[in-house]
Amino acid sequence: MNQSDTFCVLPFVAMHVSAQGGLRPCCMYDYQAITYKFGDFPAWQDQGLADLKRNLLAGVKDPRCGVCWQHEEAGAPSHRQRHNKIFHGDLVEILQDSTGSRDLRMVHLDFDNLCNLKCIMCSPMFSSSIQTEIWANQEAWQPFQPVFVKEIQPWHEHPLFERLMQQMDSVEEIFITGGEPLMNPGTLRMLDTVDLSGKTLTVTTNGTHVNDRVMDLLSRAGQLHVMISLEGVGAHNDYVRYGSDWNEIQKNITRLQTLTNWKYDGIGINHTLQVTSAWALPDLVQWCLERRLGMTINPLVNPRQLNCTGMQDAWRHHLIDRLVVLSDSDLAQDSKTLPWIQSTVHYLRQLQYDPVIGKKFLDYVIMLDGIRGTDFHATFSQPFLNARTAAPH
Predict the structure, then answer these.
(1) Are the C-beta atoms of residues 264 and 294 closer than 8 Å to each other?
(2) pTM score, two decimals?
């Protein structure tokens, strides 16, 4: 093993602020290992990461970076690999002298949990709408979300947020997520304040808030990358991303495509791989391939009831078979999505069905249907699916 297998430039040049104000080097870093809060800024160059930096430099695969190691083992491009290329100049300098002072090159900002959707795999940490739903239905939610998160004081209301915006001259890459960032006052304020003309702006959004102001702010970026989070096509997406409207999403994608400052070929689509992907993902992949929209597919770890080990074998094999057909199609051959399809198939083939997780998933959707007036069985109807009567085994 050598540095190319383990080294990552991000702990040396980047800062990620989580929705609750925690500081970490990137969005893939283990949440449980967060040491500092945003109020400790500008100590971002430390963040309690001295031992992490030593491990990366010494060729040690630090467990706090486990998500990247998993992606690389599955054959998918990792966050580490992508950013080592982006900040290659900094990487070379750091390997020559790891003790030197560094400017902030990348910020990734989660602008608290303000969100208008209640996605099936989300939590109060990232959705104020789910937080409100849990408060109103605590008994029903208790088996699935036992800790009821208190109201979050937005970190971007801290006085140090002004200092951060004043120190953005050296920043080359800005990543914005949420909650739903394009409805968040903190996001809009930052985009309106910081000179974006020489920067790459990446926004991950649910695609529901694309108004005139948003279009104007996005157009100011030197280079723009927008990732739309989608879980399926039509009713599948609207069930999983509850509160979403597929027709509205399509119109907003079309509107965003009129922008001209794209870093890559245009809009990208992000999918969270979880149990409902067994039916929803293949149609979404087909939809993206037909429109030449690049995709990323990231396996969900938590909440456990949505983990892919909850897929019954018939569901998982059905998904694998459909993805293999799509990966062999002419549309997929020249697509940036192909490695993600292939790594997803590789990941799914290694799984073993966990009946405990499978039962918890079915209990979970029954609970949500009772609260929201939805119908999982009707939405995801397939010949092999009988979700209300299937007994995990």
Answers:
(1) yes
(2) 0.85
